[in-house]
């Protein structure tokens, strides 16, 4: 670690224990096309590893002067070996996401600065949990789900994902596997550009029928600005308390995403 500062992270209604934020060296271990627009990046620490809470993100820096560092959520709960997975959407004209998709190679060294963010579970809450994600918003909620299923198995966890087509269903196999192994976990999805699927409405319009009353629930919402804002309004209408709703907006004004090329 080369620098250390203190970053206080705060959830919707409670202070989260402060973790030391700093910069950490990582090596690229895995590059895998995860959907037509998303590359999965697996990183292994070189030396000391980034401490973080499930749902937090880090600033990723590459060793290129013209490629600015950007925030990426960590898609797994903390592991003893410090390995982390990121899911990176490729945006048209996006400098850093484009560089990661086109130029990042296995064996490259990158820097993670963190931990940052407040999309973390409130330890004082004990009720059911609703996770809502669109696109790469699935990264932080996936980490939260993994952690809650292991540490608080009495809590029901429901994950609802919004994708465009079946090919955009990030981590579908993993979530279906978790659903088989944990009876308290349920996973469902809606496809906004495929009307043949069971659900093809937008998440905010489905919640009333799918779940109903959300009083007493802890809710996590992550994705683009429009998804997050519309979902937040919908869960409030259904009775979720503002203090139990955690949100993370990824990109204020996303431009069209580009199809990924296969990674060698
Ligand atoms: C807390 C947090 C967590 C995040 N986690 C993830 C994650 O897990 N996965 C993920 O893929 N992304 C995540 N993001 C988004 C990520 O940080 C970057 O914003 C994203 O990768 C785009 O960066 P870029 O450099 O490729 O694009 P940029 O070069 O910054 O541009 C992004 C897009 O916006 C357009 N644009 C740029 N500037 C303007 C402007 N002024 N007006 C209009 N349009 C403009 C560009 O043309 C481009 O299409 C997260 C963001 C935050 C804040």
Describe the fold and architecture.
It comes from Ornithinimicrobium cryptoxanthini. This is FAD-binding oxidoreductase. The structure is a single chain. It is built from five helices and twelve strands. It has 264 residues and is α/β, with parallel strands linked by helices. It has two domains: 4-116, Translation factors (Elongation Factor Tu (Ef-tu), domain 3, Beta Barrel); 129-249, Rossmann fold (3-Layer(aba) Sandwich). The strands form two sheets. Strands 1, 2, 3, 4, 5, 6 and 7 form a seven-stranded antiparallel sheet that branches. Strands 10-9-8-11-12 form a five-stranded parallel sheet, with helices on both faces. α4 packs parallel to α5 (225-237). It is globular. Mean pLDDT is 89; it is low at 2-16. It binds flavin-adenine dinucleotide. The site of flavin-adenine dinucleotide (FAD) has 24 residues, from β5, β6 and α1.
């Amino acid at each position: 670690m080369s620098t250390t500062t203190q970053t206080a992270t705060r959830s919707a209604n409670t202070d989260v224990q402060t973790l030391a934020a700093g910069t950490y060296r990582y090596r690229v271990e895995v590059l895998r096309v995860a959907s037509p627009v998303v590359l999965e990046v697996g990183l292994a620490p070189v030396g000391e590893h980034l401490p973080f809470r499930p749902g937090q993100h880090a600033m990723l820096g590459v060793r290129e002067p013209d490629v600015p560092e950007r925030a990426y959520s960590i898609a797994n709960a903390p592991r003893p070996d410090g390995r982390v997975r990121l899911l990176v959407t490729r945006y048209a004209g996006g400098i850093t996401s484009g560089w990661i998709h086109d130029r990042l190679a296995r064996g490259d060294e990158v820097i993670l600065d963190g931990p940052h963010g407040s999309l973390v579970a409130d330890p004082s809450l004990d009720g059911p949990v609703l996770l809502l994600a669109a696109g790469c918003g699935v990264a932080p909620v996936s980490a939260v789900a993994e952690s809650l299923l292991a540490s608080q198995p009495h809590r029901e966890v429901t994950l609802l994902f919004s994708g465009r087509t079946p090919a955009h269903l990030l981590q579908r196999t993993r979530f279906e596997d978790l659903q088989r192994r944990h009876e308290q976990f349920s996973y469902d999805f809606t496809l906004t550009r495929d009307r043949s699927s069971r659900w093809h409405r937008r998440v905010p319009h489905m919640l009333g029928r799918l779940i109903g009353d959300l009083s007493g629930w802890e809710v996590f919402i992550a994705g683009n600005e429009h998804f997050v804002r519309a979902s937040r309004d919908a869960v409030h209408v259904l009775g979720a308390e503002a203090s139990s709703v955690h949100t993370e907006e990824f990109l204020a004004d996303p431009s069209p995403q580009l199809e990924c090329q296969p990674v060698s």
